[in-house]
Amino acid sequence: MQNAVAQLTADLKAEAQRLGFDLVGIAPAAPPPHAAQLESWLEAGYAGEMAYLARNAVRRADPREAVPGARSIIVCGIHYRAAEPDPALWNDPGRGRISRYAWGDDYHDVLLPKLRALQEWLESRVGRARLGRSYVDTGPVLERPVGVMAGLGFQGKNTLLIHPRQGSWFFIGEILVDAELAYDAPQSIGGCGGCTRCLNACPTQAFVGPYVLDARRCISYLTIELKGPIPRELRPLLGNHIYGCDVCQEVCPWNRRWGRFTTHESFQPRPGIVAPELIELMRLTDDEFRARFKGSPIKRAKRRGLLRNVAVALGNWGDPAAIPALVAALNDHEPLIRGHAAWALGRIGGDDSRHALESRRAVEDDAWVLEEIDLALAALTHAAMST
């Protein structure tokens, strides 16, 4: 019997590799280590507006709540890191930084069909249909702790899953099944030791401590998950990050030495995605946004979210060349964009900014946007009095 299980598992892993997965491991369908910490993390408010995490907390803590009768979790990974960007573009404050995971196609559209194909292969092999469910970060699974259980790496102080010979630049997905498979042992090597580079490098100091992230301060949360205004005190810290952030991965020694590059065409950079010009993005219409980011993870932020982020980045850049685009954005149909454009004009300053803000104030009917305009005008007055 055990020989049959071992052979089935070996064949399953070979099929996963044939389908294009770079990593595959098997974990028991049991509560992962430290699952209880999710409740305290949620109680501390660190999830911010991600209420869905609390709704499925019980199911996340035990995979058998998500798939009754589940016995095994198949965890698969695919590298997504493409070639390093041109430093001249990447370090230009007039261009936006987009997280590497969003340079190519939406990973959900790439991983989920592969997971379902693997699940169908297993169902055919054991002669049973619907023996589980496949998830790509949309199901009630504590993915990184489960990845640790499946031998795909260790969880770093930046909370990410890090493979000691492949780094952390990979997506993961899971299949919860009620079939018996041979389990992989957790990695016997790896760990962060005394290193705190990721904690120290975080632009917004989002880490409460090692292994604990306050999502409310994380740039990825602020630029993607947060639907409303970005807190004013955090806006200057975002720099030119307009969709996600990779800083805690970029500085990680495991990535610097072992981080793998992707061979998958789906995750190669789309034209103009690596370091797009901020002024150009600020002028995007609804139709242009939909056409440009069709099939991209960036569509998750929607146009109002992305242009909110772009306005903040333009304010942080501080170049008067951005004023015409921001002035035009003061008349956008989205209050979220108008308010952040007002903040950016207050940061850049100058007579053109002041006149545009005063003109918009005379016709603005949104209370929050009016507040942003008044604060921006006050900032301009204070700057004028200080010179």
Structural class: alpha+beta
Principal-axis shape equals elongated
Fraction of residues in H or I helices:
40-55%
Helix and strand run = HEHHHHEHEHEHEEEHEEHEHHHHHHHHH
Strand order of the largest sheet: 1-2-7-4
Question: What summary fits the major beta sheet?
Answer: 4 strands, antiparallel
Which residue ranges are poorly predicted, with pLDDT under 50 across at least 5 consecutive positions?
none
Task: Describe the model.
The protein has helices at 2-18, 37-43, 52-55, 57-61, 63-66, 87-90, 107-126, 143-149, 197-201, 219-225, 247-250, 253-258, 278-282, 286-292, 302-317, 323-329, 335-348, 351-361, 367-386, and strands at 23-28, 72-79, 97-98, 132-135, 154-155, 161-162, 170-177, 207-209, 212-213, 241-243. With 387 residues, it is α+β, with helices and mostly antiparallel strands. Among the domains are: 2-82 and 103-177, no CATH class; 277-387, Leucine-rich Repeat Variant (Alpha Horseshoe). The chain has a four-stranded antiparallel β-sheet with strand order 1-2-7-4, with helices on both faces. Strands 3-10 form a two-stranded parallel ribbon. Strands 5-6 form a two-stranded antiparallel ribbon. It is elongated, with a radius of gyration of 23 Å.
Quick structural gist:
This protein has 19 helices and ten strands.
List the topology elements.
Blueprint: H1 2-18, E1 23-28, H2 37-43, H3 52-55, H4 57-61, H5 63-66, E2 72-79, H6 87-90, E3 97-98, H7 107-126, E4 132-135, H8 143-149, E5 154-155, E6 161-162, E7 170-177, H9 197-201, E8 207-209, E9 212-213, H10 219-225, E10 241-243, H11 247-250, H12 253-258, H13 278-282, H14 286-292, H15 302-317, H16 323-329, H17 335-348, H18 351-361, H19 367-386
Parallel strand pairs: 3-10
Antiparallel strand pairs: 1-2, 2-7, 4-7, 5-6, 8-9
